[in-house]
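Case study 2.
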Amino acid sequence: MNLVLATDDTGGPEIFASLQGEGPSIGVPCAFIRLSRCNLACVWCDTDYTWRFEGDKRPHRGGVTYARKANQVVLDVAEAARLIAAVPPRRLVVTGGEPLLQGAALAQLAALLPEHTIEVETNGTFEPHARFDPLVSQYNVSPKLSHSGNPATLALLPPRMRQWAGDPRAFFKFVIAEPADVDEVLFLQRAYAIASDKIFLMPEGTDSATLRARQEWLVPLADSHGFHTSDRLHIHLYGDTRGT
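Prediction:
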């Protein structure tokens, strides 16, 4: 079975070691595998090279489309496992794109990496594959609010939201661009009984200046509701670059 991955700046598969930059594991050394393709299209997405290929008319503020052949690579699962095992950290973050689109192949990958702790970044619209789910230690679920440009009928599916809210391994990471976005988070928290200590508010931005400016009002706002705030550590350390 194969996995479809994004490419790094060399054209190779985007498998790398770095610090987790966001959410509850921020600052932890991890191995990363970035998969290609996504069912949603966030207008501010900073990994649009994983889905906005030539011919894709879904809106994005950058207006760029990417050649699929240059930005997507297919790897046998065993080869992907070999490359991951060669990276020192034994905590693996599976990200994208939307990784749960490839659940069956991820189940095979995780089975080949029994010494790894598996952390998954997901937009929360897919039920995890039945054979992959038991091998996952942590889900970072990032439901997309209205400012993402995705309609709620695609991005906020009630059965999935209820499922994630009831999963003790799941943390919710909401991207926030304006103070009013927090009102949507509060609505979702009430609708699905999400515990406050499971919610992380993260400023939208791909440069340190924007992140810092938004954190000035976001940190006290999050604190007033008992929520965590997440930085984007990798942006401060490496900028908005692939393989970081």
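Residues 2-238 form a domain with the TIM Barrel fold (CATH 3.20.20.70).
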